[in-house]
Each structure stands twice: as structure tokens, then as C-alpha cells.
């Protein structure tokens, strides 16, 4: 694994994470009805920090392998979609659009797991927590959208 590549992937991940600082949940989100399976507030930064770290490690592991082009293109697509979700959900308050973004993100990450696994099974394994967390996040997005009609866009 190349340290320089790892740092580049972490930089992209940090840019995605920065949207959470810019578009904070705030009072609007606190006022919404949330499902019983909503994780505690502290779990979100812990989960995302772990996911960003593991995906950067995985990407750095496969980046120099022959045939990694599709895998890295999927990595780029997922970080772009990941970056997009927060401003769509918390900034624009477009829960339906955010549901579409997270649905596409889930498909891209699932494809990325397959591609990474084919190149280096350990790297594919490192991405499984991401896919699991996206299942939780998509469930939350869905239920919040469904349970709070009219609470969307300002």
C-alpha cells in the first residue's frame, strides 16, 4: 500500500466529511420524528470516520494493482455521491432526492465491494462496514421522509 495514495484518498474523504460540518443537522433535524432504530448522535461521526479510513485503506491497496480502473472509478463515484447526500438532506431538506442519492450510492458501493474483492479480497472486506452502514442510513432516510410529510424543503 502506498502512503501517498492513502493520504490522497483520505483527503477526498475529508472533503466529503466536511459537508457534515457545513450542513449540520440542527434544530430542523432534531424536530423530526425518527424511527426507534436511530443510532445515538455519537455513533454517526464514529461510523463515518471508520468508514472513510477503511475505504481509503482499501483504495490505496488496490490503486496500483493491474485492472484497478473500474474499482477506482467506483471509488470516485461513491465519494462524490457521499459528498452530495449531506447538503441535499440537511442543506436543501430534500428528503426524497436524498433517498435517491443514497439508493444510487448503495448500488455504487455494492459494485465497488465486488470490484475491490476481485482485485484483493481483503480490500473488499474492508468495505463491508460501509455497505452495512448505508443500509442503516437508507432506512433512516426512508423512515424520516415517510414519517415527516411536509417537513422537507423550506
Could you walk me through the main structural features you see in this protein, from its secondary elements to its overall organization?
With 154 residues, the protein is mostly helical. 78% of the residues lie in helices and 0% in strands. The chain has helices at 3-22, 26-31, 43-62, 69-91, 95-119, 121-126, 128-147. α1 (3-22) runs antiparallel to α3 and α5 (95-119) packs antiparallel against α7. The radius of gyration is 16 Å and the shape is elongated.
Short description:
With 154 residues, the chain is an all-alpha fold. Helices cover 78% and strands 0% of the residues. It is built from seven helices and no strands.
Secondary structure: elements and pairs:
Layout: H1 3-22, H2 26-31, H3 43-62, H4 69-91, H5 95-119, H6 121-126, H7 128-147
Order of helices and strands: HHHHHHH
Architecture, CATH level 2?
Up-down Bundle
Distance between the termini: 46 Å
Helix percentage range: over 70%
Number of helices: 7
> How many structural domains in the coordinates?
1
DSSP summary, beta strand count = 0
> What is CATH's topology name?
Ferritin
Biggest sheet character: none
Average pLDDT, all residues: 95
The low-pLDDT segments are: none
Superfamily at the CATH H level?
TspO/MBR protein
Principal-axis shape: elongated
Amino acid at each position: 500500500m502506498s502512503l501517498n495514495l492513502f493520504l490522497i484518498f483520505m483527503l477526498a474523504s475529508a472533503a466529503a466529511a466536511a459537508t457534515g460540518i457545513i450542513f449540520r443537522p440542527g434544530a430542523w433535524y432534531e424536530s423530526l420524528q425518527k424511527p426507534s432504530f436511530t443510532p445515538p448522535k455519537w455513533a454517526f461521526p464514529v461510523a463515518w470516520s471508520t468508514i472513510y479510513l477503511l475505504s481509503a485503506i482499501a483504495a490505496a491497496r488496490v490503486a496500483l494493482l493491474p485492472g484497478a480502473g473500474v474499482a477506482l472509478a467506483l471509488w470516485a463515484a461513491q465519494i462524490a455521491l457521499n459528498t452530495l447526500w449531506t447538503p441535499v438532506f440537511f442543506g436543501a431538506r430534500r428528503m426524497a432526492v436524498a433517498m435517491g442519492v443514497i439508493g444510487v450510492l448503495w448500488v455504487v458501493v455494492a459494485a465497488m465491494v465486488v470490484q475491490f474483492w476481485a482485485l484483493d479480497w481483503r480490500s473488499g472486506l474492508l468495505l463491508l462496514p460501509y455497505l452495512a452502514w448505508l443500509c442503516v442510513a437508507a432506512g433512516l432516510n426512508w423512515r424520516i421522509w415517510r414519517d415527516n410529510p411536509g417537513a422537507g424543503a423550506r
